[in-house]
Amino acid sequence: MKKVYLIMGTLTFLGINHGCRQELIASEQSMQSNIEITDGYVKNGRLYFANKESLQHYYDNVKNENEEIIAKYIDSKGLISLRPIVTEQNEKLILAQTQARINSLKEDKLKLVGKVAGLKNATAVVNDEQIKDDIDDLEDIIGDDAFAAFLNNNGEIQVDNKIYKYTDVGLFIVSDNKYSVLQQYLAVNNISNNLLTPTDFDIKNDFIEEHKPNDPYGPGNDPSKFNPDKNPVIEVFPEIDYFIPYRPPVRPSVPPTNNPPKEPLPQIDPEDEVNKFVNSLPNCDTYHTWLQSLFGDSDMCVDKYESHRRVKTKAYNQNYYLVYSIGVQVKHQYKGWTGLWRKEKADEIRLGVTASEFYYDYTPYLNYLVPKTRQTNVYNNGNRLLFNGASFWSPGYYPGSYTMTGYSIQNYPKIFQDDIYIEDIVPFIGNGSNIDLIDKGLYAAAKAGNNVLAYDKLNALFWDEVMKRTGNLWQSLGKPKPNNNVTYSYSVPEFGKLYIHKMFYRKENNVSHSERTFDWGFQIGFNIGSDGSISPNTSASGLIRPKGYKVKMYGIAKKNGAWHGSKIDTFK
């Protein structure tokens, strides 16, 4: 069943309690009780689901499973995937499918040479290995492994009577009985109908520029009233819809005038030997393939330490309209006799995130009920510790706090579900002369709307204050200081901003990959009325997605006694 995705800071300052949330979940489930969940099957070469709820259910079932389970599900359907998942068990099947796909692609390319601009040169047309590499490179545009496996080799999936076609200029949506109209539209506009055949660079850029969502900060737009996610689909031709997610332009950081943030030096890995190896790694230059990542950020690094072995590290935040996904991943892979990269177990894999930051902008959604006092909630292991403005969350001083037991956060958005979740809700502060000093300057950065500067301040606040206070609190409770798997949110209702900082660490033996998906989902969200009431919304208009994803991370694998991998820093 679907879950309601709610912004926690909004919930708290609106005073909605846990019981109300349970009623809300039950209410939404009741509304959906008449929808039948059925498994998908291949229809006209595409994976077909009767409704979005069915797609959601079966996608959720495999999203965070290992590759064998995803591959087994897709292979049982007989689908030729856009980016197939190759395992030792299915590589013969995938090779046969890939070779047929390559032969068909060669024929199509040769027919189109001279007719469609942007084709690779004739050598690439007949180069099987290059085409296999191009299939592997599709990860740059559809980075979610499970969703890429759900799409067919033409980048298509059908839900109800709608066909969703992913291209290198964006997503097109058309009724199944109008598919031929879409094909004609693509041909007339010289847009490639296959992700392995790029559209001419100028044609692609001109089309995207003409149809991309407006910049809320552009001339004549009010960013407090404009939400590019609210109506994300437009009609580009009668009965043909188009989607491309809003990508905020990069804005230069305004340096702080005082109180510069200190650069924290956390230990990257708990074990000294591994820590030295990770620290010795340079921040890799995340590569970009000939495909443009239209649907969000997918920063990848590859350590190809042998001709047939590599470690692939990735941070991603992508929105495919039907699905969105945000997280980090490391994979150990081997290129066998098929010429296709498949997973291979390493002796050990480690995935670490010292800083993952992003924010929610909920200014277009409500008139704020700003709290009068600061409130901090600490969630851990079914308990909630509440600190109000009278007690303040300071080391060794907790007389005004109280604990709620049996308090589950399983119905909260996935992005907040962690070993420890710390929620800070900030009251109205105003224009005092010392606002640059409040919370390491984060409040002032939020007020200025400078998210780049806010990230610097959030990072300093997390390491200099939050982790120290959490450590002291844990010690006062007779627990060891936590050093990993902590999520911190800083909500400023006055400015409609919710900033998130996450840290994460995982060590696994005898595995081929490790992944931490911070959040994933479908077009399911919520509405907030002017009176603060909350109601579920299953349309695109009710969904708030995180923005400005930045990460400092590493992914490493140990094979035959040696470590290999990469370190990524997208803050720089």
Helix and strand topology:
Blueprint: H1 8-13, H2 18-31, E1 41-43, E2 46-49, H3 52-63, H4 67-77, H5 91-112, H6 122-125, H7 128-137, H8 145-150, E3 156-159, E4 162-167, E5 170-175, H9 179-188, H10 201-211, E6 233-237, E7 240-243, H11 272-280, E8 296-306, E9 309-319, E10 324-335, E11 341-343, E12 346-361, E13 375-380, E14 383-387, E15 402-404, E16 420-425, H12 442-448, H13 451-476, E17 486-492, E18 497-511, E19 513-521, E20 525-528, E21 534-537, E22 547-559, E23 562-569
Parallel strand pairs: 2-3, 16-17
Antiparallel strand pairs: 1-2, 3-4, 4-5, 5-7, 6-7, 8-9, 9-10, 10-11, 10-19, 12-18, 12-22, 13-14, 13-16, 14-15, 17-18, 20-21, 22-23
Helix pairs in contact: 12-13
Task: Provide a concise account of the structure shown.
The chain has 13 helices and 23 strands. It is of the alpha+beta class and 572 residues long.
Structure report:
It is a single chain. Helix content is 26%, strand content 29%. The chain is an alpha+beta fold and 572 residues long. It has 2 domains: 8-32 and 353-569, no CATH class; 41-243, no CATH class. The chain has a 9-stranded mixed β-sheet with strand order 15-14-13-16-17-18-12-22-23. The chain has a 7-stranded mixed β-sheet with strand order 1-2-3-4-5-7-6. A hairpin with a 2-residue loop joins strand 22 (547-559) and strand 23 (562-569). The chain starts with 7 loop residues before the first helix and ends with a strand.
